[in-house]
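Practice problem: predict the structure.
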Amino acid sequence: MKVISRETLFTLLFFLSVGAYAQQKEYAWAEAEDGGYSYRYVNNDPTESRFYKLSNGLTVILSANKKQPRIQAYIATKAGSKTDPQNHTGLAHYLEHMLFKGTDTFGSLDWSKEKPLLDQIDVLYEAYNSTTDEEERKSIYRRIDSVSGEAARFAIPNEYDKIMGNMGSEGTNAFTSFEQTVYVEDIPNNVVEKYLAVQAERFRAPVLRLFHTELETVYEEKNIGLDNDSRKTFEAMFEAMFPNNNYGRQTVIGTVEHLKNPSLNAIREYYSTYYVPNNMGIIMSGDFDPTEMVQKIDRAFSYMKPKDIPEYTFAPEPEITQPVSREVKGPSTEFVYLGFRFPGAATDDAQMLDLISNVLTNGAAGLIDLNLVKKQKLLGAAAFAYTLKDYSILMLQGNPSQGQSLEEVRDLLLAELKKLRDGNFSDDLITAIINNERKAEISLNESYKGRARELMEAFTSEVDWAKNVGYTDRLASLTKDDVVAFANKYLNNDNYVVVYKRQGTDDQVVKVQKPEITPIVLNRDSESAFSKNINALPEASIEPVWLDYEKDVTKGKQDDIEILAVENKDNALFNLSYQYAFGKWDNKLLPLALDYLKYLGTKDRDSESFSQAFYQLASNFSVSAGNEETRISISGLNDNFDETVSLIQDLLRNCIADEEAFDAYISRLKKSRSNAKENKQAIMEGLRAHAKFGAENPFNYTLSDAELDGLTAKDLVEILHDLPHTKHRALYYGPQLVSQLIPRLPALNNGGKPYVEVTKGTIFKELPTTENQVLFAHYDMKQAEVHWFRNSGEYDVANTPVISLFNNYFGAGMSSIVFQTIRESKALAYSTYAYFFEPQKKQNDYTVSAYIGTQSDKFAEAITGMNDLLDELPESETTLETAKASLLKSIASERITNAAILNSYIAAERLGNTSDVRKAIYERVPALGYQDLRNFHGEEFSKKPYVYCVVGDEEALAEHQLEEIGKVKKLSLKEIFGY
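Answer:
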């Protein structure tokens, strides 16, 4: 008799008899009491979340998950750009940045001396805000800069980040959206008291110190947005869709005019209005006892006093009775957005909207997937739901193929909506969607991070968690007629907004100009009494857990094919990959063949039927061709393992050439290649490859236009047919043991026949970096992006501990030397880092890399600022101790589990390591000191030649600025891309 684990049984039941099962479940709110605290919960909630309301109105939502000794924590305020004052847009986002600056007890060396200077700055900003004369404004700003410099002598920049780093927190961050501002930490579970003490103080009375340098950081963020055509298109959609609501009337970062005229008094007033306990929530998921946790939170935040919160009111949006059209111009590739308005997130219709978006596009069997993407009628298309408190939107995006107009793309998308309204889709599609949603829920609920994120989003959008938990079961009661009726109610050919993103110069963009800022002192080794007290609080130790590859990875063989496996003990989901030790370096056609596979069928089943079959099984397949490795992967429910494996094997072995699909594929490929030349990230990737390998490199190792024109469908299909007969190995994560798995796998060997031989292709070797050089590519943008690049020596595992500590100290994270200097002190960039990258394979070189994205008029300053750090490593005992504590505590609380065990094993194998390298880091780092880092910096960074990869506007960057750095080489797009 086979014994079924509790987890497997739960998963199997989850998928059985969807309709009947839904009727057996009840997702109703209930109440309970534990430890003197009442809480609410939802029956049959797999996350077992508890919802508390403390006496001061603070919401606390807790979901225990014991898989890792860590906790994902969110502190959320239900206020964002929607509630910004109309004359101070961007204010909520400003405030988010300032809540990292401390209070009167931390972030300050001497509050009694700092406060009078900050009061002066307040007055100066109010004068600056109300003055229109430009010369007078410049004079006031010079005074602001001067007084700010004096005040900075008494500040401790980044003390918050250092405190959290000392706890081993990861992902320290925050974000602002339309109606939420959320503060994010992922902490080890033994520092909860420290975390709560810091957060309680952080929100008690934030001080708006170091304002002018942070303001410049926000300017940089605004300029990044001005260079982002997708963001501009999104904002144009919301402006047209919501003329009465601040979703459309205001943007998150704010207008240029308001950014240039900030008011600290307005920011404080906003804080006082909305940062009150009855408008805030603390959401946690991870390894803790909920009863103990709520007691600790209550003690920490009981000082907060509730207030009445102004209700956000707006006139209802008028019905859209005819298409509303907008245009956005920019240098990136063209696309079109279609938007339809729906009720807000808490409504039943908003949940129905999620189903509608899946009927249209789910990556496999939706109407758009099958009729447009699979049939290659355009370059790409998708539909997705965007839900907010007041309203929601169904968004459709389409990308044109070669010679296709945006209007034609629009019409293709509208035609799929008509099919939806007419019910022209598979009768079993809804059931398949529900099963795939259930599978996604299982994966999501495994993750403490995923749980916390879902709970936080429900809180800020005011979505009933009972409705959220019962979503898929409620869908099971819907019929195709319900979906059709809903589509006819909300979607027609007239009630939409369309935004055309066209190529061209946007004459409306006004860059936020660079003010004159004197770099502030950093007081790196200073520490407040508050910080010392927090660091001195006791914490229980967490013992690290190392992988033992011999025990944690099971090895087996099917004839001469190796199988590596890790058992899934949590549920009945599996993942199986066929791994080949060759890639696109060995055959340029391989990535094309694997991509073409998505559009092929066999003589018995067409491509659309394969997609539908996978989706109905709640299974997925994916293919990828890397430089030196190829994978074909499938995943899904273990009960459908045999059918899923059979499908992928059938497709690989028996796919047949489809000439019509091939012609469309080549046409689309040409368009994709053309689009890549209009993408600044792709251009920078090409520059970096040139810096690493030279003029002939993996990035431009591709087919020429002539080679592409000479290609046939047969060429690609032959490659696909060879794959099942080529030596590979199988990687498996799932509930089966290897002994159970092998009999269920179709023959992976070649039936005793010789394997197809793969001739090794081009081997690209890193070039030594011998001189300063500038690789420049022009792009129409407001910012300039710079990557410093240098190849170093080959991998040596003995270097790993000092590399890990050096990266933490020097250039990774907000408490690092680079971030503090470039962003906090000099306000030269929104985003910056410097890192020593390890190679993926033992035979490859290490890479020295640094990055700054900055305004064009700060280019020379930014280059000098980073070069100073690359040449001379500043010494800071406090930063070093923070780097050590952060690294050691992160390692101790990290648990590599599930499929990540396989990935860790393979990564170690590539580098020639036979054990978990984290152990060596953990054991050696405590003995490392500044001199070790200084020696490493001197060997790898200081006074070394670099290749400067620069993407920017040629007219905005003076030629001499580039020539002062090194020998300039302006690369054409053909040199970068190879076609």
